[in-house]
UniProtKB/TrEMBL annotation:
InterPro entries: 6-blade_b-propeller_TolB-like, Strictosidine_synth_cons-reg. Residues 178-263 form the Strictosidine synthase conserved region domain. Belongs to the strictosidine synthase family. Signal peptide: none annotated. The chain crosses the membrane at residues 29-47. Keywords: Glycoprotein, Membrane, Phosphoprotein, Transmembrane, Transmembrane helix. Residues 1-20 are annotated as: Disordered. Residues 1-14 have a biased composition (Polar residues). This is SMP-30/gluconolactonase/LRE family protein.
């Protein structure tokens, strides 16, 4: 019996003895966690990338600190809210009576009237495309022509009835109808941003052109392709003489010119390059000058990624939901004015970032009206133009 009792005590002591000190337990846990992270990283690096990026050495971005037309100012910092009914008023246009129209990302198109003193009244819903209306301009018949990224090219009559003008070209879908302008003869020039069909970080990382410039002829009801191979085709605007049409290539910081008349008809060239950010929409004022909204100033990481295909292909593996911050607009409002020849006349800034993510800048009745897109500041604003 004594020997049995001794063995029993030893067995009990073995069960109750601590397996290790708290410090050792934490050390084992951290080592296990590190092992899992290393294994996870190895697996992530071995997964094939969904893209084969093209290498590109982006030009050095213009400086906001140096003197010249890019020099930073606060011209947009005093912006007045016109309406907050549309959260993301991508584009802005006016009818013959001076009423403002803009769309929102939820499909609604709003109308804003002004009183005798020019004060904006409460926004009213004019139509609902059930899509995402971006560009909108009135044609000669009073119909609102709309480029909707989900529905294609639309026409909305004064009572709000919607007709699809085009959602295909050459038997294939119009993937992402974005912006437009209308010529005096009724021809509609508009951009099909990308055959990706949506805005995705993978396309930025891939750095290959997937956009197009299209033309719709209301007489024949036919849509044709004018230009292909554009780096995220965006804003569109005709020159005052309609001898060329511009289309913004957001991902290469440039505006491309397609000639409609003259000896260069049917060819294209660069109208303005090395902009200080991603150009979005283009509007033309009464002087024939072009105004361009800059959705975000240059992102140094993106420029570095373009010069490093391995980094780009690796970033493309990360789920889009985790990369929303990587391509979010910098909180620095910016719009630029260009001459009819493409020379930079001036830039308008809000360095405090109260107004940012700018897509549209359009002059009307002594004001510069400002539109934004999702990711930017909310609501439609305007800034009084100084003479």
């Amino acid at each position: 019996m004594p020997n049995t009792q001794v063995r029993s005590v030893k067995s009990t002591e073995g069960v109750n003895r601590p397996k290790g000190s708290p410090r050792k337990i934490v050390r084992r846990f951290l080592l296990s966690l590190l092992t899992l992270l290393v294994l996870g990283m190895i697996v992530f690096l071995l997964i094939p990338s969904p893209i084969e990026p093209a290498k590109w050495s982006a030009p050095t971005a213009p400086s906001f600190e140096e003197s010249g037309p890019w020099k930073q100012n606060n011209k947009l910092s005093s912006a007045q809210l016109v309406t907050d009914a549309p959260k993301s008023p991508e584009f802005i246009t006016f009818d013959k009576e001076g009423q403002l129209y803009t769309g929102d990302s939820d499909g609604k198109i709003y109308k804003v009237a002004f009183d005798a003193e020019g004060n904006p009244q409460k926004a009213q819903v004019f139509a609902d495309t059930k899509g995402t209306p971006n560009g909108l301009i009135f044609d000669a018949n009073g119909n609102l022509i709309v480029t909707d990224v989900k529905k294609g090219l639309l026409s909305i009559n004064p009572s709000g009835s919607i007709e699809v003008l085009a959602d295909q070209v050459d038997g294939k879908p119009i993937y992402l109808a974005n912006e437009l302008d209308i010529a005096k003869d009724g021809a509609i020039y508009f951009s099909d941003t990308s055959n990706y069909g949506s805005v995705t970080f993978k396309e930025i990382a891939e750095n290959k052109p997937h956009g197009r410039l299209l033309k719709y002829d209301p007489k024949t009801k036919q849509t044709t392709i004018l230009l292909e191979g554009l780096y995220f085709a965006n804003g569109v605007a005709l020159s005052v003489d309609e001898d060329f049409v511009l289309v913004a290539e957001s991902y290469h910081y440039q505006l491309t010119r397609y000639w409609l008349k003259g000896p260069k008809k049917g060819t294209s060239d660069i109208f303005a390059d090395n902009l200080a950010g991603f150009p979005d929409n283009i509007t033309r004022d009464e002087q024939g000058h072009f105004w361009v909204g800059i959705f975000t100033t240059r992102l140094s990481f993106v420029d570095q990624m373009h010069s490093n295909p391995w980094l780009a292909s690796t970033m493309a593996k990360i789920p889009q939901s985790l990369l929303s911050g990587a391509s979010a607009p910098v909180k620095h409002g910016l719009a630029v004015e260009l001459s009819p020849q493409g020379e930079l006349i001036g830039s308008w800034h809000d360095p405090e970032g109260t107004l940012y993510g700018i897509t549209t800048a359009i002059k009307h009745n002594g004001y510069l009206y400002i539109g934004t897109a999702p990711g930017g500041s909310l609501g439609l604003h305007r800034v009084l133009l100084t003479k």
